[in-house]
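=== Structural record ===
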Amino acid sequence: WLWSSRHRHRPRTPNIPYLVGTVVHAGLESYYRNDRQLEPALAGFDLVAAREYTAFESQWSGQLWDAGGQIEAAEGIDLGRQMIQNYAIFDQGPNRLEGDVIGLEEVLTYDLCTSPHIVLSGRIDLRLQRHDGMWVNDHKTAKSHPNFAGLDVDDQLTGYMFLVWKNHGVIPRGALYNVLLKAIPASPRVLKSRELSKDKSQKTTHEL
């Protein structure tokens, strides 16, 4: 973000992971804004996906785009759409994010000091009110299962909780990363013994 937004540098090739993350965030925002309904979520996803694809096409028009960039972008958007569809299924299960939506995509700021003038800012993806208090949620897309060692001192979530406290006057009960893997679940591999593989690295689910 610093290099692209502040210093105006751009990557050498189309940033497909950024594209997937952007459209998935848009789909999740629409999902929670429309009472966890899939169809409005997909409509919001498609709207942002079309805009982002056009922006990518404009930015990367030329050899890189013609040499496969457009295919990667289209595949990334298709992956993101399937991730939203699967998320809606997951959200009907026992591990869903419980609570009432009380905040969506809030941009919060707080002046840390005046000399020099330092401002802490952040975009809070989702705030939920549960029976045990308010929870701050940040959506993440990842290629593999993240390592959450040291999560209790994570700078981003700590900053978000601080911003919520200073802007809303309520100390959050907790914060969590809502991680969506950039993969579509598939059936477990069948071994030569005709038994199902128990390899835990497989992208699958208990139902499959």
